[in-house]
Design a protein that fits this description.
about 45% helix; alpha/beta; 5-stranded parallel β-sheet
């Protein structure tokens, strides 16, 4: 199974890279994993979606190929002002059918106590509209910037516990949707 991990933040001070490394370390299912970091794909602000472009730039063709070949997606998102990071939203908005009928997991984090739960709720709406059903369990890592501090320890342990339950559910979704796409295509 091909799983694409999409990182949402491009801030210089982002902690998303550390969260992404933790997510990768907790995936104990032998997926083929590709990481899409918006820092590596300099997309302009949305003007035309991929299918509207008559001659897409190579960056769009590369992402189209990665997303089309994916069986599922795990979105690793920060929460900014109770919402989705602009880089995440911009990347998702450029594409559409590439996501259709593919499993989607949302992992959030923040430096606050609720770990990006509001961004998760917004992403659920976006992902549903794109046709990629988000799984019900969404691990949230609060105080993610304090992983080594005593006050951050319980948040980290809770995240690992949540992630194990999430991965089991995500794996069910990715297998069910992949198998159904095979028999209906």
């Amino acid at each position: 199974m091909n799983v694409v991990l999409i990182l949402g933040s491009v801030r210089d001070t982002r902690i998303g890279g550390n969260v992404l490394l933790k997510v990768k370390s907790l995936i104990d299912i032998p997926y083929d994993i590709i990481v899409v970091d918006p820092l590596d794909y300099h997309l302009p602000l949305l003007n035309k979606r991929y299918f509207e472009m008559s001659n897409p730039e190579p960056v769009f063709n590369k992402l189209h190929k990665i997303f089309s070949e994916a069986d599922g997606f795990i979105l690793v998102t920060a929460e900014y002002n109770h919402g989705i990071p602009p880089a995440m939203k911009n990347m998702l908005d450029h594409f559409g059918t590439e996501f259709r009928h593919k499993a989607c997991g949302i992992v959030s984090y923040s430096d606050g106590a609720i770990g990006g739960a509001r961004a998760t709720e917004q992403l659920r709406l976006v992902c549903s509209t794109l046709g990629m059903p988000p799984v019900g369990t969404s691990p949230a890592w609060g105080l993610a910037h304090k992983i080594d501090a005593p006050e951050g320890k319980s948040f980290h342990e809770n995240f690992e516990r949540q992630f194990k339950a999430f991965l089991k559910e995500f794996d069910w979704y990715i297998n069910a949707l992949t198998n159904h796409r095979k028999i209906t295509s």
